[in-house]
Structures are given as C-alpha cells and as structure tokens.
Specification:
globular; alpha+beta; 3 helices; three-stranded antiparallel beta sheet
C-alpha cells in the first residue's frame, strides 16, 4: 500500500514532453531505481523511501528527499499552474 504525500513532485520521464507527478513513497522508490545518476541526494532519497515504507519516517520527509534527488538528477519540474 503506497503512503501518500502532497503536493506531488513532478519529474521528467524518458518520453519527451511527458511528466510524472510522484505522490507516494512507492512511486518515488520505483522512479529512483530508473535514474542513471546515483549521487548523495539520490542515496538519501532511496534510504528515506526504505525508512518510509517501514514507517520510520513520514511521507513528507520522503517527499522532500525525493524532490532534492530529482533536482540533483536534473529531472525536477515545477508544478504546472492551472
């Protein structure tokens, strides 16, 4: 069962022009394993996901770590205004 956070963290996908709004710990973990860079913020985000799935850190902490990793990877996209 995914543990949700809000607002979503939007990231680039492999498909041009397609963005993915990650809004849960499981989705963040699945996205992280597809990335090519494994810098310190990526490692921290992976650890946060694991701890979040174990209930040891909050979904908001995972969201923050995932957003920082997305910025490090160059995949972060700001939310689109309606």
């Amino acid at each position: 069962m995914p543990l949700w956070f809000s607002p979503p963290v939007y990231v680039r996908t492999a498909r041009t022009g397609i963005r993915y709004g990650v809004n849960n710990i499981e989705g963040a973990a699945e996205e992280l394993v597809t990335w090519t860079k494994c810098g310190p913020k990526w490692r921290h985000a992976v650890e946060a996901c694991l701890e979040g799935l174990r209930g040891r850190v909050s979904p908001d902490e995972v969201r923050s770590a995932f957003e920082e990793a997305a910025k490090e990877e160059g995949k972060f996209l700001p939310p689109v205004e309606a």
